């Protein structure tokens, strides 16, 4: 597959989006094969050279982004110096992709040199960076064995950052303390210093937030969600980031990430942009990670004219990022039983998934909404048979389930301070299991037993911080009053 994709990429591809998708998926295959011990394969070496050499030669921003996304998927250790270069000196979107790519590396690759660059970006020692880049750099530092002074300097920076970034970083540290993350113990040590831990620093206003929680938690496996929302100083969404991780024993899977970004929308409401973001082009888009694989990003609009045309022609329907079928398992083997007979075992599992999202911006109602909808259905079938000359016996089992996981953010900017309400919910989902046992004898007699169990697991709205709950009450009250007025 990798060889075929390399040949396709070297050929002529008329559609730029398809061409970018091919190089992004090449990076994902490189990581897959390298993990399986095939890093020395000729095709893998050729793909590595194609990504790194292509990044050096790329001159168009779109090409640079595509190669960086491919490098993000490939997770190449030799690509770290290149990512550091683009992180610190690249333009906003390019720098953002490069820093997010570094977030995917194992802690062993985040060296002191990497953290020095991330600290320079966060504290803006050499140049001014966008808020999205600075907050991503902060996450890399905090998630990779930060030092006492690194944590202290970050906490001391709160109060000197742009308004919403102050609130965001404050929420990040509150989430670290509450959710028991790797930096929790060190953060508590730093907060013993009253110069750091005081009312002035911990009472910063704003709507941005960071929150983590459990979707499910058991003795053998668990799943967590995290929701980070960063607003611009004018109250318009700058970036929302929803992550879902699945943990089982010593393994970790980045199941889903959906990121919605927007920039340069301040002119629509005659607001002032934050430092370093005054000349940003109007843009909104979405990108997703599915099972540790970065997918091709989707652009809602780019440029003021595109924004106006989309605003007047928008249907309000979400835009699909990925929709398709995923083969989870296809396993077949023969087991030798102690009786001398052989049992044939077959298992197949499939997943249908649909991830979509959208951004609705209304000047008339002075309101913006962003939505991320994740829907999936999974089916696993198994068949175990023992076939001998005198009898045939077996068992078939089938499990089915389907679920949804949705996020909605509403911002009302008709008054100041803005009202922001975030909602996350997992829908009610059915769980069905069917088991069929059968025996057949040469004489024609047969025995069949069928059993089934169907249950509905109640859905729920996932908890966020109390401040958000209070704000949602105000938003719903405002909506009810406006409806009654009309």
From TrEMBL:
Domain MTP large subunit lipid-binding: start-end pairs: 188-479
Vitellogenin domain sequence ranges: 14-171
InterPro entries: Lipovitellin_superhlx_dom, MTP_lip-bd, MTTP, Vitellogenin_N
Keyword annotations: Disulfide bond, Endoplasmic reticulum, Lipid transport, Signal, Transport
Subcellular location(s) of the protein: Endoplasmic reticulum
PANTHER family according to UniProt: MICROSOMAL TRIGLYCERIDE TRANSFER PROTEIN LARGE SUBUNIT, MICROSOMAL TRIGLYCERIDE TRANSFER PROTEIN, LARGE SUBUNIT
Name of the protein described by the UniProt record: Microsomal triglyceride transfer protein large subunit
């Amino acid at each position: 597959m990798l060889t075929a994709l390399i040949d396709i990429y070297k050929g002529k591809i008329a559609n730029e989006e398809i061409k970018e998708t091919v190089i992004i998926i090449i990076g994902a295959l490189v990581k897959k094969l390298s993990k399986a011990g095939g890093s020395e394969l000729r095709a893998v070496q050729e793909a590595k050279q194609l990504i790194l050499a292509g990044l050096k030669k790329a001159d168009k921003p779109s090409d640079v982004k595509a190669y960086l996304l491919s490098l993000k998927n490939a997770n190449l250790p030799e690509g770290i110096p290149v990512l550091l270069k683009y992180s610190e000196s690249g333009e906003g979107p390019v720098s953002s992709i490069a820093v997010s790519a570094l977030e995917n590396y194992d802690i062993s690759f985040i060296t002191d040199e990497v953290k020095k660059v991330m600290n320079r970006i966060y504290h803006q020692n050499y140049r001014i960076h966008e808020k999205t880049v600075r907050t991503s750099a902060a996450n890399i530092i905090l998630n990779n064995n930060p030092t006492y002074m690194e944590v202290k300097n970050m906490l001391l920076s709160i109060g000197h950052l742009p308004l919403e970034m102050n609130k965001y970083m404050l929420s990040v540290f509150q989430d670290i303390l509450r959710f028991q993350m790797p930096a929790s113990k060190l953060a508590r040590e730093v907060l013993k210093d009253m110069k750091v831990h005081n009312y002035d620093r911990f009472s910063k206003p704003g709507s941005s937030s960071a929150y983590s929680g459990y979707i499910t938690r058991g003795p053998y496996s668990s799943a967590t969600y995290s929701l980070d929302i960063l607003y611009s100083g004018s109250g318009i969404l700058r970036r929302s980031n929803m992550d879902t991780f699945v943990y089982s024993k010593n393994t970790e899977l980045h199941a889903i990430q959906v990121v919605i970004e927007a920039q340069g929308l301040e002119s629509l409401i005659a607001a002032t942009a934050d430092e370093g973001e005054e000349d940003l082009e109007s843009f909104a888009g979405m990108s997703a990670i599915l099972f540790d694989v970065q997918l091709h990003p989707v652009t809602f609009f780019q440029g003021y004219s595109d924004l106006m045309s989309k605003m007047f022609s928008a249907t309000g329907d979400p835009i699909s990022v990925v929709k398709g079928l995923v083969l989870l398992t296809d396993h077949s083997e023969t087991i030798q039983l102690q009786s001398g007979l052989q049992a044939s075992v077959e298992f197949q599992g499939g997943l249908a998934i649909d991830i979509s999202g959208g951004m609705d911006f209304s000047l008339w109602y002075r309101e913006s909404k962003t939505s991320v909808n994740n829907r999936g259905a999974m089916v696993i079938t198994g068949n175990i048979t023992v076939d001998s000359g005198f009898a045939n016996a077996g068992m078939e089992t089938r499990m089915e389930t389907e679920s949804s996981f949705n996020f909605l953010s509403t911002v009302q900017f008709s008054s100041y301070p803005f009202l922001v309400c975030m909602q996350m919910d997992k829908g009610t989902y059915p769980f069905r299991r069917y088991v069929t046992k059968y025996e057949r004898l040469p004489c024609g007699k047969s025995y069949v037993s069928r059993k089934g169990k169907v249950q509905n697991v109640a859905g729920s709205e996932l908890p966020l911080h109390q401040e958000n709950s209070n704000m949602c009450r105000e938003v719903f009250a405002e909506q009810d009053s406006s409806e009654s007025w009309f």
